[in-house]
Amino acid sequence: MKITITEAGQHVGEEVTIGAWLANKRSSGKIAFLQLRDGTGFIQGVVVKSEVGEEVFQQAKSITQESSLYITGTVQEDNRSPFGYELSVSSIDIIAEAEDYPITPKEHGTEFLMDHRHLWLRSRRQHAVMKVRNEIIRATYEFFNDRGFVKVDPPILTGSAPEGTSELFHTRYFDEDAYLSQSGQLYMEAAAMALGKVFSFGPTFRAEKSKTRRHLIEFWMIEPEMAFYNFEDNLKVQEEYVSHVVQSVLANCRLELGRLDRDTSKLEQIKVPFPRITYDEAIEFLHKQGFDDIKWGDDFGAPHETAIAENYDKPVFITHYPTAIKPFYMQPDPNREEVVLCADLIAPEGYGEIIGGSERIHDRQLLEERIKEHKLDEEAYKWYAELRKYGSVPHSGFGLGLERTVAWISGVEHVRETIPFPRLLNRLYP
C-alpha cells in the first residue's frame, strides 16, 4: 500500500510503501537510521541488518543525501519522535541517486543558502515555515468565505498608483505607461460597491530600496473591502481575522511550530479584543521612552513600533494618524479633520506593522479635492472618483502583509524565509 508520511498514523502495524527523499542518515553497527521526507512530513526509517540481509543493509548505508527512493516497511509507534511514528524498513528501491548535494548538515552562510533557495526549501526548518504559511492562507479563505465575502482578483498591471509612483515598478503597456500593482485596494473598493464584502489575495510590488528584515520587493497581500462598514466595524473584522489565523496555526501546525522552537504560549494569548492607542498617545509614550527625535506629524519607524509593541502581549492598534502622512483616500475624523479614521496593527515581539487600514472617503467632492491636493492625475483616477457619484456609501478596508504575518507567527527573524523564492533588493535568483 502506497501512503504519504502524514498518513502513517492511520497504518500502524501495516506494511506500506512511501515515495521519499533521503534527508539525512546515520548508522550504528548493525542498524542504519534514515531520515526520510516526502513533502508532507518527515519520518525515520530504521534498517536492521539482521532483518533485511546484507544487500539491503549495504544499500541503506550507501544511499546519498537527497536521493529519491521507494521505501517499504512497517509503521510503528515511536514516542521519542516528535512525529510519533517510525518505519521499520524491509526493502529499498532507489529511483534516482543524488550527486554531491550542496547543502549538507553543517552550517552554511545565508548568502550560500539563498543562492541555493531551490534546494534550501527541502530543509526541515523551511518546510515548517512553508507549512505555517500554507495554514495561514487556508485559514484566510476559511475566515472570509464563512463570513460571506467574495474573492475578487484585481489587476496586477495598473495605469495609476494608489499611493504615488515613487515606489512602483514602471513598464510599458504597448504605447502607454503602466505599473506593477502596489495594492489592489482601489479596485477592491469598486468590487465592494458591486458585491458588498470582498477580499483579494495576490502579489504586490514595491520598488523600495530597503534592506531591512521586514521588507520584500514582491510580497502577498490580503485586502478586504466592505460596503456599509465604518471605522469601528473595520477594526473588529481585523482583530477577529488575525485571532482566527493564529488559533488555526496553533491547532493545525503544532509539529511545525515545535520544529521552529516557537514559544506557543505567546501565540495562545492572541485573542480578541486587541488593545488600541491613538497616534497622540503613541507620541506621548515614545517621548517618555526617550525618543526625543519623534514629533507630532512624523511617521513611525521600526524602533518606534517595536517600543510601542513591547508594552503589550497582543497586537496593538495605533489609530488616528495625521492626515498629512496618510494616503489621499482616507476618511478624516469628523470631530478632528487633521487626523484620519485609520489604524495600523503592530505585531508583538518586534515584528512591526502587519495591517494598515482605514475608513475610505465616500464624499465625491472631498475625494476630488484630495486627488488635486496630492497632485495626482485626475483623468487616471476618474473611474475611482465615479464610485462616489453613483450611490456612494460609507465603506472601509485593510491590507495584511502575508510574509510579515508568517514571520511573526512562525517566529523567524527575516521575511526572506517566509516566501518560497524571495525577491530582495539585490536578489532576483533563483
UniProtKB/TrEMBL annotation:
One Gene Ontology molecular-function label: transferase activity
The keyword Nucleotide-binding belongs to this UniProt entry's keyword annotation: yes
Domain of life assignment: Bacteria
GO cellular component: cytoplasm
EC number: 6.1.1.22
Enzyme class: ligase
Pfam family, one: tRNA-synt_2
Keywords associated with the record: Aminoacyl-tRNA synthetase, ATP-binding, Cytoplasm, Ligase, Nucleotide-binding, Protein biosynthesis
GO biological process terms, semicolon-separated: asparaginyl-tRNA aminoacylation
Cellular compartment(s): Cytoplasm
Catalytic activity: tRNA(Asn) + L-asparagine + ATP = L-asparaginyl-tRNA(Asn) + AMP + diphosphate + H(+)
Annotated SUPFAM superfamilies: Class II aaRS and biotin synthetases (SSF55681), Nucleic acid-binding proteins (SSF50249)
Domain Aminoacyl-transfer RNA synthetases class-II family profile: 130-430
HAMAP family with a match to the protein in the record: Asn_tRNA_synth
Protein family according to the UniProt entry: Belongs to the class-II aminoacyl-tRNA synthetase family.
Subunit structure: Homodimer.
The protein's name: Asparagine--tRNA ligase
Species: Bacillus thermotolerans
Gene name as annotated: asnS
